[in-house]
Write a structure and sequence with these properties.
It is built from 14 helices and 10 strands. It is α/β, with parallel strands linked by helices and 411 residues long. Strand 8 and strand 9 form a beta hairpin. It is globular, with a radius of gyration of 21 Å.
Length: 411
């Protein structure tokens, strides 16, 4: 998982992929792709009109009015974020921890990236006072901070930013002249949507926020890469969108027409898509809650997961037991748990956390079963935790973490 010069991949560490849904492709989506499969063309750079109109409808239903000429689409979140960073320019600020690819994208483009601590109650957004201090320090050192990346429903912490915390962070950023890129990939994966308030920064600061969503978050398989961005309705955004289109054209980041057809269908949220989205979020929420209980029972720490298909665990309280196994930092913890559990367990260093902090992201998809049939069974089950494959996977996780209690050694 490291990806350094020693294995021929350059000096930039390659981050782990976003947590997978682990579920078979929805049959209706497969039918749409099959129906368009004879097309050998790609969409125009930035997406065709049907795809962009579907994205507008998606955002309208979430309270964000949009027009097709304010939207762009690309073949995945990486080229889209690269184009946006290039279009807006300047130094980039982001919370610590944050999605693994953010800092990589900035560095590959030659833009300095600065990490800002998050508040105690959530991840995904910077602490507003720490943000102000960081901006002023960077400027004092001759830097040019222009962009703030944040996520209201977060990878890796699986938390949702409270509205008041988000508002304070956005007001601090806009007050310092920063433009905000709001990654809302996970907004449709809330575990308890009726109990969780999720607001977009674009509702609070409509002229200063570009919204980005990777459709692999809730609507499409990750192997069908599509991401969309919504620019604010300002004159300045016209030039930024044009520059973004130039960069996407240069990158060749066009969406294949069959995938674009599936994306437009999914963004329209017909009944089968809406039901799958809701059921998948509930399934992963149920399993994530069980993982959270398992981590706490073993003596670890974690914020209660609210969204996504993952959990961010702090195993610092188990440091003594880990030290007995030669584990002293998150890189070694990643290697140990990946081998012990037989599935990738990325360490916190990949998300910008301190190397010495013993934190990892635990994904829920590997707990749903080893085959597509078992995972479909998990989706259909009234209580997935009672299924043998899920119960056994949770028990294996509990055993692996339980072994790490201080004073217990089975080496």
């Amino acid at each position: 998982m490291r990806g350094t010069a020693s294995d021929g991949r350059g000096t930039v560490h390659h981050g782990p992929a976003a947590p997978e849904p682990g579920l078979p492709v929805l049959e209706d989506l497969a039918d749409v792709v099959a129906g368009a499969a004879r097309s050998a063309r790609g969409e125009p750079p930035g997406g065709g009109p049907l795809l962009r109109e579907a994205a507008c409808g998606y955002w309208w239903r979430r309270g964000l009015t949009s027009r097709a000429d304010e939207v762009v689409a690309a073949s995945g979140p990486q080229p889209l974020l690269s184009a946006l960073i290039g279009a807006y320019g300047g130094d980039v600020l982001m919370p610590r921890p944050c999605p693994a690819g953010w800092a990589l994208q900035a560095r590959l483009l030659g833009h300095p990236a600065y990490r800002v601590p998050t508040p105690a109650e959530c991840g995904g957004v910077p602490d507003p006072y720490a943000l102000l201090e960081t901006v002023r320090r960077v400027r004092a050192e001759g830097g040019d901070p222009r962009l703030l990346l944040l996520s209201v429903a977060d990878d890796p912490t699986a938390t949702v930013a409270p509205p008041e915390t988000l508002r304070e962070a956005c007001e601090a950023a806009v007050g310092e002249g920063l433009h905000i890129i709001s990654d809302e990939t996970w907004r449709d994966t809330l575990h308890r949507p009726h109990d969780t308030v999720l607001l977009s920064p674009a509702e609070m600061c409509p002229d200063d926020v570009t919204v980005v969503s990777d459709l692999a978050g809730a609507l499409l398989p990750s192997s069908w890469p599509v991401a969309v961005a919504r620019f604010p309705p300002t004159g300045e955004s016209v030039a930024r969108r044009a520059r973004t289109l130039d960069l996407l054209t240069a990158l060749g980041a066009v969406v294949a027409e069959p995938v674009a057809a599936a994306a437009a269908y999914a963004l329209d949220e017909p009944g089968p898509v809406a039901r799958r989205t809701e059921r998948a979020a509930a399934l992963h929420g149920r399993v994530a809650a069980a993982v959270h209980h398992t981590v706490l029972a073993a003596g670890g720490l974690a914020r209660p997961p609210q969204a996504g298909r993952h959990l961010y665990a702090d195993l610092g309280p188990l440091r003594a037991g880990l030290a007995e196994r030669g584990v002293s930092d998150s890189m070694e913890l990643e290697e140990y748990l990946t081998e012990r559990l037989g599935t990738p367990v990325p360490g916190g260093h990949r998300f910008g956390d301190e190397l010495g902090a013993l934190r990892v992201r635990l994904a829920t998809a590997p707990l749903l079963g080893a085959t597509p049939e078992q995972r479909e069974e998990s989706l259909d089950a009234p209580d997935p935790l009672e299924l043998p494959q899920v119960a056994e996977a949770l028990a294996a996780l509990g055993t692996a973490l339980g072994e790490l209690r201080q004073g217990v050694s089975r080496i």
